[in-house]
Amino acid sequence: MARSGSDHEPDHTQSSQARLYNPYQDLNIPIQTLYQLPTSPEFLFTEESLHQRRSWGEKLTFYTGSAYLSGSIVGASIGFFSAFKSFEPTDTLKLKVNRILNSSGHSGRAWGNRIGMVGLIYAMMESGVVAVTDRDDVWTSVAAGLGTGAVCRAARGVRSAAVGGALGGLVAGAVVAGKQTLKRYAMI
């Protein structure tokens, strides 16, 4: 016995005009408010909610990666402009493109590695300061910046290490203050 089309079987021949099936249509539930997902992190224990900070591994990955990426972008743009300065009137288009790519790649790698190492040292310093003091605030970032600047410039002497430490502390303090200002006024 051949069955004709019933109400429960969809018609696959007219898929472009077919209405999509809504399994909640008989329940009179608005779909938009069906799933209320939380927007803030949920913690199993209250102790976890009191210490809302990244782990040392997350800091290491984030600071090193973002420093390498930003250093690579800056270095590639420096190499891009230096390639334009080195063009000769007899260069063909292929030679110009090759010169731009080589110069941008070389300079981007070099700057990315240098700035990435600074990010790595900063991440280690900040994790060390947080482990020793059990605080994660503005002064922790300033101390980590001070230590990073001093370590990065230590091979050039004591005076250079002191200047590098002071500059590192100032830069870290300015970055944290800028981040707090953006949080407050830009609602990020």
UniProtKB/TrEMBL annotation:
The keyword Membrane applies. InterPro entries: Tim23-like. Keywords: Membrane, Transmembrane, Transmembrane helix. The chain crosses the membrane at residues 60-84. It comes from the Eukaryota. It is found in: Membrane. It holds the Pfam family Tim17. This is Mitochondrial import inner membrane translocase subunit TIM23. The keyword Transmembrane applies. It is a multi-pass membrane protein. PANTHER family: SD19278P, TIM23. It comes from Hevea brasiliensis.
